[in-house]
Design goal:
The protein is an alpha/beta fold and 368 residues long. The protein contains 13 helices and 18 strands.
């Protein structure tokens, strides 16, 4: 089996709430999403999608996905997509860095591998370790009253885990967290995610103001060193996200006791191959992971769900259903939320089929 062609579609994903806001006044109203198809000479096709959270969240941007794929794809024509590690080495030889470019190509090859084996992807990622996955809901930054109202609404839809977007004025952020925590039961999860938005001084003040609350602190500052500094003076459970960009950084953070859990994003680390490796390192270190991606629609939701459901619940903080945050469907067969949880298809591979009526015509095609 050999790769014969690679196609890319560009599709805009409108946000259900109209706008999504996070640290430092950042916001976005429309996601620029890329859907990828890797076709083979055997007739099997694998799919994936990559959707950066705008150009100022991570070192990634939507146009870069497509430009990068144009540079990498010719080097994959003629390769066996089932050899996912060989595919990774070929991509690294063609393009240094840029893991978000490589992630959808990697995931599409995993989709082909599952289809070639006749197995759902979770079986190849470790087996079905959960019957369903607990979901968290990201709460866009707003006033304390607005955020508490949003949490009340999403609790009524079954969510029991919430990630608040903070990273603004620390006193206002303390009010945001307190307003939301008062809406939740003791056994419900609350994460205050600053997305690198606090200075060290602001983070110190914020965690001091939250010292009596059960809340997990996530990525308070931009640099790893700053985050470790705040970790040392806080008794809260502590998570890192943006700082952990691959297995090497994960190993360093484990050695430094820099966190209690990680936020593992598939496209940030280069796809399922690297994400599975990092998930397995976390399992060996007795550390939970929140499994998700930068953003996406139905196909991204399916990919992260397969990795999450192959992770024991004890080590899976939560996942998320990106396809409920946007108003356009990119595929059929994707996981759907039911009472704050989701499961995955037992069909081979990702178990999805792109909705080509919504995708339109491809903007890139490499190969025959």
């Amino acid at each position: 089996m050999r790769i014969s062609s690679i196609s890319v579609w560009q599709v805009d994903l409108p946000i259900t709430e109209g706008r999504y806001s996070w640290a430092d006044g950042k916001s976005i109203e429309l996601f620029d999403n890329s859907v990828i198809a890797v076709r083979t000479d055997s007739g099997l096709t694998g799919y994936a999608e990559c959707c950066p959270l705008g150009p100022v969240y991570l070192p990634a941007y939507a146009e870069g996905v497509r430009t990068g794929i144009e540079a990498v794809a010719p080097h994959l024509i003629g390769c066996d997509p089932r050899s996912v590690h060989d595919i990774g080495r070929s991509m690294d030889q063609a393009l240094r860095g840029h893991p978000y470019v490589k992630a959808p190509l990697d995931i599409a090859c995993w989709d082909i591998l599952g289809k070639a084996c006749g197995l759902p992807l979770y079986q190849l990622l470790g087996g079905k370790a959960q019957d369903s996955i607990g979901l968290y809901r990201a709460i866009s930054q707003g006033t304390p009253t607005e955020m508490a109202e949003n949490v009340r609404q999403y609790r009524s839809e079954g969510y029991r885990k919430f990630q608040l977007k903070v990273g603004a004025d620390p006193l206002e952020d303390v009010e945001r967290v307190r307003a939301v925590r008062s809406e939740l039961h003791d056994d419900e999860l609350l994460i205050a995610d600053a997305n690198c938005g606090w200075t060290r001084d602001q983070a110190a003040r914020a965690v001091a103001g939250l010292r009596d609350l059960d809340v997990r602190i996530e990525q308070p500052c931009e640099s790893y060193a700053e985050c470790v500094s705040i970790r040392r003076r806080s008794a809260h459970a502590f998570a890192l996200d943006e700082s952990i960009d691959g297995p090497a950084m994960l190993m360093r953070a484990l050695a430094d006791d820099a966190m209690d859990s990680i936020n593992l994003k598939l496209s940030k680390v280069g796809g399922l191959t690297q994400a599975k490796l990092m998930r397995d390192i976390c399992l060996s270190a007795n550390m939970p992971a929140l499994i998700e991606d930068s953003w996406g629609g139905d196909i991204a939701t399916a990919a992260l769900a397969h990795l999450a459901i192959s992770t024991p619940e004890k080590y899976c903080v939560a996942a998320t259903d990106f396809n409920s945050y946007v108003t356009l469907r990119t595929a059929t067969g994707a996981p759907e939320r039911q009472d704050g949880r989701m499961s995955v298809s037992d069909r081979p591979g990702l178990g999805i089929e792109p909705d080509f009526d919504n995708l339109g015509d491809p903007v890139i095609k490499i190969g025959a």
